[in-house]
Amino acid sequence: MGGSLVRPVVLILLMYVFLKFVVPNIPGSAPLPSSLIFLYLMLTTTGIVIFATLSRESKDAFFAPILNFLTGENIGAMQAARYGFLILFPLLVGWQTYGSTATSDAPPAENRTIHPAPPGEYTGLSNPVSKTPENIMQGKGFYAAFCSPCHGGKFDGKGPAARGFNPPPANFSDPTTIAMLQESYLFWRIKKGGVGLPIEGMPWKSAMPRWEVELPDEWIWKIIMGEYDGAHQSPRTWE
Hints:
This is Cytochrome c domain-containing protein. With 239 residues, this protein is an all-alpha fold. It contains 8 helices and no strands.
């Protein structure tokens, strides 16, 4: 394969690796859907083809390896590549077809209420604990002791026990989680845990413990302050 074709292929592969594996690890980012990755790769490929056909010389250099592969010129390595393609392409199509049509023993997807409404007595509660550096630091200490095994020491939902749960523990550093919620909502969820979810929220099957059994309300409010401060987020307010 000519060098003029190797560089575009390498560029497309690097773009795929960046979109698939690098972007999700950027703070504040989320994994990209496959359709969006495919769109970016198609745009990259289109740009490469346009750039490679700006002149007759670059066009001939770009398409020469492809024509050699299709027409059978340079029989040695090209012939081996054609036989490999002839064998692998039908296998790839068959594998893709089987994967999309075969029945699965996985349970069907369930509709989920992302933020089920809390009971009326928890709506609009204000944090009664003063927001002082001492209380925030103490809240972080409680968080480290009771919450970090699941939600992670970096508040990113990647604690040492996180892999054992599906759905995984919430990522507090994600701006679509606690930054969209009021402190009263977190107080309800921490206090009542998974067993306190209403019927419409049950598809979450949350493994959140019922912390009211072990933690006094004051500790829970301090944990909430520590979570927001540690995740560099602010609670949602009516204003």
